[in-house]
Amino acid sequence: MRPPRSVVLQLHGESFARRYQVVSLAITAAAAGDEVLIVLWFDALRRFVQGGFDDPLPGEDVLVAERHASLGLPRPSEMLAEARALGAKLAACETGVRLAGLEPDEVSPLVDRLPGLQEILQAATDARFAIYV
User: Fold this and answer.
1) Overall pTM surpassing 0.90 (yes/no)
2) How far apart are CA 44 and CA 47, in angstroms?
3) What are the Cα distances from residue 23, in Å, to 17, 41, 82?
């Protein structure tokens, strides 16, 4: 059995496709026993906190979401919850919280950590895989 890898997934993209891609990677890595840190930024963070994490953007993103649903796949929020149940950690940078128009007090109960940018950078530097989507 291989030792766990450290995986840092930073999600800043607003599209359904990007949200689905990151949670798919997170659940796969967590199920394999890897140490997973998901960092939410900007619109992805806002949608996670205020609702709409599963909603596509108008246009082509709707087609991606429709294909996703037609395959019977779970919604991104369900996959994120499952990844967390498997040990993935969810974080948001305190400055990123404010850039998303949110307050740390409303975000902190929903995430595992509110690290600073230096800590996020160090986690990404130390990780076996660091992906920014």
Assistant:
1) yes
2) 5
3) 10, 14, 9
